[in-house]
Automatic annotation (TrEMBL):
It holds the Pfam family Palm_thioest. GO terms for cellular component: lysosome. This is Palmitoyl-protein thioesterase 1. Keywords: Disulfide bond, Glycoprotein, Hydrolase, Signal. It is an enzyme of class 3 (hydrolase). GO terms for biological process: receptor-mediated endocytosis. Belongs to the palmitoyl-protein thioesterase family. It catalyses: S-hexadecanoyl-N-acetylcysteamine + H2O = N-acetylcysteamine + hexadecanoate + H(+); S-hexadecanoyl-N-acetylcysteine methyl ester + H2O = N-acetylcysteine methyl ester + hexadecanoate + H(+); hexadecanoyl-CoA + H2O = hexadecanoate + CoA + H(+); S-hexadecanoyl-L-cysteinyl-[protein] + H2O = L-cysteinyl-[protein] + hexadecanoate + H(+). One of its GO terms (molecular function) is palmitoyl-(protein) hydrolase activity. Its EC number is 3.1.2.2, 3.1.2.22. The keyword Disulfide bond applies. PANTHER family: PALMITOYL-PROTEIN THIOESTERASE 1, PALMITOYL-PROTEIN THIOESTERASE/DOLICHYLDIPHOSPHATASE 1.
Length: 201
């Protein structure tokens, strides 16, 4: 892979490449992420488990199969499933998310590479009905042990222990949190021009 430098707008694939791909001389100075789900999901699109009893039952039923070896290896969506009610199960059997977020062990290379970014921009869509919980778009998630209340990135153990280097980046002014009204990936050209284009210039 050749050496690159520059800026990108993307989602999970872009974010996940940063800790790993920087080691292959693919260097981005800035990354703008739309509808990112770095903390995972615990719900189905347009079926909010926090406010719907039926949706809550469905997501609890999914827990039984989401972490099976077969499902984890063959269904990409399952690799983002993060069950806050069974944190040990998640950390043990999540093939991808628990690893990239350093929840089992800290890979110092991942941490160092992420901190090479000059700017890490996360965009939350305030009425998003696809990503559940929506706070994951800002690296927040449901508090461990329950499935109703969320915590911010800054309140999380990931941040307090600085397992990914996000706390250091935040203190250095490298993290930007943007929000826009609208459902999943719904934004106006005017909003994009005013808020995101400056990062890409």
């Amino acid at each position: 892979m050749g050496e690159e430098s520059g800026k990108t707008v993307g989602g999970e694939s872009a974010f996940e490449c940063v800790p790993v791909c920087q080691t292959f001389n693919t260097i981005w100075s800035q990354i703008v992420l739309l509808c990112l789900r770095p903390s995972g999901v615990y719900g189905l699109p347009r079926c909010p488990g926090e406010s719907s009893h039926i949706c809550d039952m469905i997501r609890k039923a999914l827990n039984s199969g989401a972490y099976s070896d077969l499902v984890q290896k063959h269904l990409v969506q399952a690799q983002y499933w993060h069950d806050p009610l069974n944190d040990d199960l998640y950390k043990k059997h999540s093939l991808f998310l628990a690893d990239i977020n350093q929840e089992r062990a800290v890979n110092e290379t991942y941490k160092k590479n992420l901190q090479l970014l000059e700017k890490f921009v996360m965009v939350k869509f305030l009425q998003d009905t696809v990503v559940d919980p929506v706070d994951t778009e800002w690296f927040g998630f449901l508090k461990t042990g329950q499935a109703k209340e969320t915590e911010t990135l800054q309140e999380s153990l990931l941040y307090k222990e600085d397992r990914l280097g996000l706390a250091a980046m935040d203190k250095a002014g490298k993290l930007d949190f943007l929000a826009t009204k609208g459902d999943h990936l719904q934004f106006s050209r005017e909003w994009f021009t005013a808020n995101l284009v400056p990062y890409l210039q």
